[in-house]
Amino acid sequence: MDQFGARLGAVTAWMWSLAIVLALVVSVAVPRTFAQSREDIDERCQRRIEHADHELHEAIERHGRYSKQADHERRELHEVREQCWREHHRWWDEHERRWHDQRDWDDRDHDRD
Prior knowledge:
Blueprint: H1 2-34, H2 38-63, H3 68-88, E1 91-93, E2 98-100
Antiparallel strand pairs: 1-2
Helix pairs in contact: 2-3
């Protein structure tokens, strides 16, 4: 019985050691798995702004520059720009094809196209 107790103690100690090592590995690996690179974040933000900008151009073309549809799409574009700014302090300018690091967009910029 003494030999069985010694083996059980060794197995228990080994399992605790393994659990500690696994906990350390998981605590380091999981945040990196869910982390997004700056490029991924920028790309997603850029795609959302490009889409909203395209929808505004379509609404202007189909319904007129001062239509309620164009106004709706202007608000959508504004919201996407605001979201990018809040989350990343940058926003994509589809017309100039570049990033801005100042909150300097003009919500009526499409009225002069």
